[in-house]
Amino acid sequence: MVAAIGFSLEEAPSVFAIRDAETDKVVSQGLDWLAVQQHKLGHWTAKGRYPTAMTALAGMAFLCEGSTTTQGKYAENVRRAVDFLTRRSRENGLIGDELDERYTYGHGFSMLFLSQVLGEEEDLERREQLTEVLTKAVIFTGQAQTRAGGWGYVSAKDGSGFDEGSTTITQVQGLRGCRNAGIPVPKEIIDNAVGYIHKCTNQKDGGVQYSSKGGGSRPAITAAAIACLYNAGEYDDEYVPRMLAYCRTQLKPNSRDSFGHWHYAHFYYAQVMYRESGDTWEDYSTSIRKRLVSEADTVALGDADLSYWKQGYIGPVYTTSLNLIILQLDNAYLPIYQR
Fold it and tell me: In this predicted model, which residue has the larger pLDDT, 254 or 11?
């Protein structure tokens, strides 16, 4: 069962910074669809799985629209998502469930989402709660880091030291969000993670490989790695130009998904292109908007039309959340995505 929408579909228009009306329409309908999918306990799932990660990503989509826990069209949806995730904060700092075989994704995305909420939170009691949750979460992340400087699907202890690129990026972006919100983050954790990315960069093509143990260059992980380095403040990192060159050949918005994880790759690559700004962003955003808008599906709810994306094997909540974040980067509401 899903909860009722926390708003009237006839309410005042939102404050999208999208330039064309068709994109504006799809984004608005997509946010409405996402709101309908929220469960009564405040969470979202990917076909019944990964409630922590899906709730954080869906929450980010609403934050990108401009809603907070107290203001905006989706304030109730954001507030219930925050409540769900704070309830999942464990004594050891993990946000999520240790029974989840990939709990670091949910933990990292939750740090990112909750840190962005903290930056705009007006309620003193909620601010104190979020600060406590995120402080413990940062400690957990530091303890979960592998000797190589990365992270795996679970903590280093639970995963026997296994590391993997995409989960590493999730942790670093979450840590950066926490640091921006005033949560102490030890510098050595970030330094070790940056070193990990360097070690995983393929000298031949500039792509970032799956793991410190190998696995070949991956477009999605490479795009995420650039975003990660930017989040870590490494704007002039000597590895970035080669990574960008690799991504430009692999991640053209109109190319077919020949490598898997297309939406995940462009979730991060769009952040990179947005930071590049100017014609680079204009050209990329025009192409990615056209593709995403054309791929959206529409479903009727009463007299209203809702939009969502069903592409991707993880499920429509996941894909829709990622695409809505991409399409709303121009709103520039969240510090983690700002230039």
Answer: 254
